[in-house]
Amino acid sequence: MQRYCLALDLKDDPALIAEYERYHERIPDAIDQSIREAGVTNLEIYRIGNRLFMILEADDSFSFERKAAMDAANPAVQDWERLMWQFQQALPGAQPGEKWLLMKPIFYSSPRNG
User: Fold this and answer.
1) What pLDDT is stored for residue 114 in this prediction?
2) Residue 49: which region, alpha, beta or left (left: phi > 0; alpha: psi -120 to 50)?
C-alpha cells in the first residue's frame, strides 16, 4: 500500500466553503468510480479554515501519472474538476496549473512492541 498526503486551499469565503463541503457529502458515482479505477483504496479530505488536507491510500497499481492520464480522458472528471476549481485556489508557491500539492513527510512514529 502507498500513502500520500496532499494540500490545497479553498477561496476564503464561508459561503463557498460551505457549498464545497455540500458537494462532498455525496460525490457523483462517476467520480468515485474514477478514484477506485486508478487504484485508490481510501481517500479522505480534512479542512481547517480554508486549507484542505487529503490522505490518499492506494494499491501498487496507482501512480499520479496514470491517474492524471485517466482523468484527462474522462469527461465526468474534467467537469467535476472545473466545478471544484470555482471553490479552490492554488497554494502559495504552486506552479501554474498545479492544484493538490504533495506534502513531504518529515516525521513518523509507530507504537513500539513491549
Assistant:
1) 59
2) left
